[in-house]
Structure formats: structure tokens, C-alpha cells
Amino acid sequence: MERLFHGILNHKKIVALVFAVCAVAGAVLSLGVKVNYTFADYLPEDTPSTIALDTMQEEFGSGAPNARLVIDHMSMPEALAMKSTIQELQGVLDITWLDDAADVNGPLELIEPEVMEEYYKDEKACFSLTIDPDQILDTVEAVREAAGEGAVMAGAAVDTATATATTSTEVGKIMALVIPLCFLILLLTTTSWFEPVLFMITIGAAILINMGTNLLFGEISFVTRAACSILQLAVSMDYSIFLLHRFSAYRSEGMDVHDAMVKAIKKSFFTITASGLTTVIGFAALILMEFRIGPDMGMVMAKAIALSMISVLVLLPVLALMSYKVIDKTWHKRLLPGFGGFAKLVLKMRSPAVILFLIIMVPAFLAQGSNDFRYGAGEIFGPGTDAYAERVQVEEDFGRTNQLVLMVPKGDTAKEQRLSQEIHQIPQVINVLSYVDLAGPEVPPEYLDEGTMSKLVSAHYSRMVISISTKQESHDAFQSVERLRELGQTYYKNAYLLAGESATTYDMKDVTIRDMARVNQIAIGAIFLILLLTMRSLSIPVILVLVIETSIWVNLSVPYFAGESLQYIGYLIISAIQLGATVDYAILMAGRYLEERQSLPKGEALVQTVKQTTLSILTSASILTLGGTMLGILSTNGVLKELGTLVGRGAVLSAALVLLVLPGVLYVFDKWIAKTTWKANFMKEEKRHG
Fold first, then answer.
1. Which of 5, 281, 407, 536 has its CA 20 to 30 A from that of 86?
2. Enclosing H/E stretch for 170
């Protein structure tokens, strides 16, 4: 291994050039990576709602309605003309209005009030649109342009278009704030004005290479796109700090710069690889999720951390040796005070800290599993955003409408009539648009115009468009989905299909709940195994995982005690992220304690451990907290806002438990650790007096 390190440092210019070329290539290639903003695309292909959407696309040429458009000051003829105009726009697969549900050429008094009020009232027309998922952004813009000023839109397609238009810009703004603030944190926690520059170049190169190599996947989810660079910067910065701290220490002992760096790499290699592997495993566990946003983020972030480790172990040593004279010239006294007093306080408070830890553990675990969860991406834009204001306006004018599409084998109109009658009995149902509701079972299909027929009957299916008065995701919506599937099963066995945002979200709930236990168990098990092998201890892995898991439980219990709902995908992802990213703090603390304990009694070893590791832990945690908090504050996308808040809060909690609780746990279980750690060689307490 030493020969490899010497070889790298003997070819500094070549190594630096290779990384520079790769970083530039990564920046260019990243422009070709597509971003997917639709949650439904990440469901397994064999879920019922996915099969239904695919079949509907084949049979009818369009999916379930995914947008509503409201235009004011419209007469009936103007509304019909506008419908024709919008129907011709590229990307509009289908548009439904009053004329599809009733005869608008006859007396309007004969139209049922519920039907009329769903589509037209107070000279306002409400159109239901199905927009091509592959052309959402351009199509929504084209519809808005055709509808004119004052028109408002709402629905899943509109939310997706808004996310597409805003996420990249917001991420750019967040990074523009995070980078200088990270730089400031590093200036405060290092002893050279130039060292932070090396850190940022090293991790920056890894980020660019990671972004470019995402082209291998073709496309990534918007959650991954928004979070990966921020997380990579925050999670892997401490690797750089570990290495340069060692380098400075060996140089202060009078070693030659080349030899000091080789020894620094050698000594840091264990800490960096152990920390990096646990983080990689934390993210890699997401790959095993059925809901494919997990594999999407897992692969991208595992690759990101691996690239960061390589950059720190290869590029940073080269840059440090090429610029060590600049580092020396820009040396300054440490700006932050030492942590000796804090370390002594931690020793004094060890017993209360451990007792408090044991007290909060169980209620935090129970609370985090009792949260009120959200599973889909419906209504992801909250108060203060244009998307929210428009959704409220649409609902004020025409009420809350959520559309589901039930497809049944065509041919038996009498059975369809009976099914429709039962559907009308569902409390949440406002209206049913189907062949039997529009024409009646006795009217031959050829008596309906071709345009209406093509929307309701295909080569193999009859389609029922069912409007329900619920949110896309709610108890009532899920109850309606269950009842419709029950009716479909009763009348047609497994030959029916149900599509729509609520059906998709219902399936998302089933899939993500199944994912939860598997992902957590695998992540914990794999990280435990890595710690077992690297720390060569049976007790240390148990202690470290328990401390970090408790910090995760506390983090996820906050929404429960605050009475807020929690996005389940955020709940699922943060469990892996926080475990993988912040167990590094615990590894650093425990590793240093094992080292100090060989020459000091446990009290003094604890003080020295806390004193020597606090700055590194605070630096890393501050950057992760900053990145997550900025994402939480500045993002208008509800999913990203919540994920950012969880990451930022999780970093604070993990650092707090590692700095305030873990030392006490190590102290209390010192004898058990000594007995269960291979070649621990702990100094015996009595030796101090002998």
C-alpha cells in the first residue's frame, strides 16, 4: 500500500491533470442527464395502477386526467371553441368538458346540477385535461398561453411542470449559498487560510465527476438531482479534514513533507475507508427498495461517496504537496478555542447523559413509527407558491375533484349499468362519465358521435371516468380506491383496471411500507458487519449503531409530537442517509477512545478523546446541517423541503448524541468493550497508582 502512495505522490502533475480533465468532462456530460419529476414512474412495473395506466395508453391513447384548467368570463360557445383549440395542442392527449357529460345543445335546465357545477358556473369553464407525461413542461406552458391571462391550472401535471421549472434554479441558488458558508466554516475550523481551498477543489472535482457519470443511468429523479451534490459535499468533507489534520501533525514532528503525507494517508486510510464504507452501505441499502427512487438515489450517492474517497486519498495529497508552501505562508492560529473544558464537562455529565439517553430511546422509537404519513407527491407546493394559490382558486370555484378511471371488458352494457349504479352509491363520488351513463345500456354505440365513443369505448374496454370529492391522497380517497377495486373484482374478477393519481398513491403506500423494514434491517446489518470487521469489536458496533439509530428516531419523532404529517419517502430515505452519513462521527469518537485507552485510564482517555475529536465532528456536522437546512428553507418543493429539514435536524441530533452521550456510554461499558474487542490492550486502572 505504501508503494502505491509513493507512486501517486511521485506523479503529482499527471494525477492533477487526470482529475482536472475528468472534472471538466463530468461538468459537460452532466448537461445530458435527464431528470424525472414524476413519482409514479418509479413504481414497480407490476403494480396494478401502473398496469392500468399502460393499458389505458394502449387502448385509448391517453392516461388518467392529470390537470384542471379554469377560465373566467366564458360563454358556452366560447368554452367549446377553447376546448377545440386546446385539444389540438401537442402534448394534450385528452380534454373533457360539459359537452362530454351532457347534451349542451338542448335546454341547459335538463342537465343535472351536479354535472353542470363540475364543468361550468358563474361564466367560468372548468376543463379536465390529460397531458402527456413526456411533454408536461412545454404542454402546460402552451395551455396557459392558449387560455390567456387570468386562467388558473391545478393538478399533478401542473405540480410536475412547476417542479421541473423551479428545482434546478433553486438547487443552483442553494449551492451558491452553501459553498461560501461551508468555506467560512472551514476557515474557522482550520489553521490555514488556504486549506479550505484544497478541500473545496477536492470535493468539487468529485461532485462534477459524479454528476457526469450519472449519464450511465440515462435519467435520475428530481429528489436525487436536488439532494446529491449538497449531500456529497456535506457528507464527504470530513474525509479531507481527517487527512490534512494527520499531515499537519506529522509535519509538526519534523518529518519531510513527502514522508509526512505518505504516513498521513496510511494512518487516515482506515478511518476514511471505514467511514466511507458505512456511508456507501447506508446509501446502497436504498438500492434494494421496490420503489425505484430508492435505487436511483442509492446508486448515485454510493457512487458519489466512493468518488469522494478516491479524490481525498489521491487528489488531495497531490494538491497538498504541490501547495504546502502556500499552506505554510497562510498559517494562522486556531480561531476557535480548544475543547478541553467541554471535554471535562462531558466527563462530569456522563451519568445524567446516559440516563437521559435511555429515557428518550423508547418513546422516540414508538413516536417515529406512529407518524401520520403521506405517500405520493400530490399537492407538494404549499402556501406562498403560485402553484398553491392556483390550486386553492380552482377548488374555490369548482370544488375539490379527484378523477379515477375504471376500465372493464366491453360488451355487457347491462353489467356496466349495474356497476355504474353501485359506483354512484359511493359517498365520495360526484359524477361518473361512461357509455352507459351518457347513452344508457339500450342505445347502440353507433348512435354516439365518434369523438365521444373514442373516449369511452376502445377495442377491448369500456372506460368509466369517476370524479370524487377528495384530495389525491387522503383516507377518503384510499377508501374510494378500495371500494372501486372491490366492485371491479365483484363484477369482473381480475379483468378490471383502475388508474388515477389516488390509485397510484395507494400502490405507492403499499410498496414503500414493504420497503421500510427491509431497507432499515439491511442497512443496519451491513453497517454493523463493517464496523465489526474494521473496529474488531463485538460491543462497539452495537453501541455506535444504537446511538445513531436513537438520533434518527428522535429526528423522526419531531413531526409526531408537532402534529404534522411526514412524507414517507423522506422518512425512508433519511433513515439510510442519517445512519450512513453520521455514523462517521461515532466511528471517529470510538476509534480515538480505543487508541487513547491503551495509554490512559478511562477518565483521562475520555477527556482526550472528546478534546481531540470535537472540532472534526462539529465541522462535518455543521456543513451537513447547513446543506440540509438551506435545502429545507429555500426549496418550494414540499418533498425536497421536508427532506432537507430532516437532514439538517438529523445532523444536529447525531452530533449532539455523539458528543454528549456516546462518551458516557463508552465510559460506562469500558470493561465490556475491553473484553469484547480484539487486542484492545486497555491500560488497567491500577497501573496509574503503581
1. 407
2. helix 156-189
**CA-wise closest residue to 408 among 435, 427, 438:** 435
Q: Backbone dihedral region of 73: left (phi > 0), alpha (psi from -120 to 50 degrees) or beta? A: left
Return d(Cα 147, Cα 656) in angstroms, integer: 54
Q: What is the C-alpha separation between 182 and 178, in angstroms, rounded? A: 6
pLDDT tens digits for 403-430? 899 999 998 888 999 999 999 999 999 8
Q: How many CB atoms lie within 10 A of CB 108?
A: 13
CB atoms within 10 A of CB 516: 15
Give 3-state DSSP helix, strand, coil % of the chain, rounded to 5: 70, 10, 20
**Angstrom distance (rounded) from CA 652 to CA 551:** 9
Buried/exposed code over 418-440 (b: 16+ C-beta within 10 A; e: otherwise):
ebbeebeebebbbbbbbbbbbbe
Beta bridge partners of 192: 331
Helix pair angle (602-634, 638-660), 10° resolution: 170
Helix/strand/coil for 600: coil
User: What domains appear along the chain, each with residue ranges and CATH number?
Assistant: 1-31+192-332 (1.20.1640.10), 66-160 (3.30.70), 339-368+536-690 (1.20.1640.10), 386-505 (3.30.70)
d(CA 584, CA 118): 56
**Look-up: residue for cell 486497555?**
682
Q: What is the mean pLDDT of residues 609-631?
A: 90
Neighbouring residues of 13: CB distance < 8 A, sequence distance ≥ 6: none
Task: Give the span between the Cα atoms of 38 and 133, in whole angstroms.
Answer: 8
Q: What is the 3-state secondary structure (H, E, C) of 387-417?
A: HHHHHHHHHHHHCCCEEEEEEEECCCHHHHH
CA dihedral 598, 601, 607, 609 (to 10 degrees): 10
Beta strands in 450-596 (DSSP E): 461-468, 497-500, 565-567
| Cell (9 digits) for 244 | 490534512
Instruction: Quote the CA–CA distance of 583 and 519 in Å, as a whole number.
Output: 17
Distance (Å, whole) CA 583 – CA 676:
20
Please spell the DSSP secondary structure of 334-363, one letter per residue.
-SSPPSHHHHHHHHHTHHHHHHHHHHHHHH
pLDDT in the model for residue 688: 47
d(CA 496, CA 679) in angstroms, rounded, equals 65
Neighbouring CB atoms inside 10 A of 93's CB total 19
Tell me if 70 sits within 8 A of 398, measured CB to CB: yes
Q: Which residues of 176-185 are buried (b: 16+ CB within 10 A; e: fewer)?
A: eebeeebeeb
Chain centre to alpha carbon of residue 33:
18
Q: What's the whole-model pTM score?
A: 0.83
How does DSSP assign 491-508, residue by residue?
A: HHGGG-EEEEHHHHHHHH
Residues 355-392: tens digit of each pLDDT: 999 999 999 999 998 888 888 766 688 888 888 999 99
Residue pair 574/568 in contact (Cβ under 8 Å)? The answer is no
Beta bridge partners of 405: 465, 499
